[in-house]
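In this section we walk through a basic example: taking a raw amino acid sequence and producing a predicted 3D structure, encoded as discrete structure tokens. The instruction is simple. Fold the sequence below.
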Amino acid sequence: MLISAEVRWFWKEEAPFELKEWFHDPAVHGCSPGGGPPARYDIYLVTESSELGIKARGVKGLETERMGPKGPLEFKGLIGEHHQTGDPGPFSVPIQLWCKWTVLGIDLGQARRCKVGKTRWLRKFDTSGNPPVEVPLGRDEMPLDRPNGLNIPVRGCNVELTEVRLVDGRVWWTLCFEAYGDMGTVIKDIRSTSDILSMRGPAPDISTGSFYSYPRWLAQLHLC
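The resulting token sequence is shown next.
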């Protein structure tokens, strides 16, 4: 079981140009983001729920069908929302708390499915100290200086910019902050990370984005 805090925005067809430029600029952040092509293909169970997501996580660069009794399924359920107070800042929206489980041995039979291709660029922050520290990543989204003893933080915040493609050709983009750790730290960590990024600027205007989680985004696509 994994507890996370998340804020996420979606844009149909294209993300704001200034967001892309800002996110990728090493002069702004001190390093380039990790990740990038090739895409990863996740398989989602199609429901009308905005509070529960069920998916089979794909492997980057492989188009394989893994939803079924032989592959693990990831369940993601909404616990609640925390409304921020004080200075709103450019990334201030209600923070959603989620719980995730990985379950084996469930056969979903003829359940409706949706394949989603994701090409992700990632920035990772170690939030165990104050302030958070960005961990430079490579194309494999792993820390570049692992040989020097820096492992993946056990408490941190991922900031991702992702191109999302559906099999019918529709394209969306999403920006997400997702803090992981435990219930007592994730809200604080997502706030401190967004505060750090808001000062790397000027920060982009993302007010044109829709505040969706992945389950809510899938529900509004009317795939059922």
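Looking at the output, two observations stand out. The longest helix spans residues 186-198. The chain has one domain: 2-220. In the next section we compare this with other chains.
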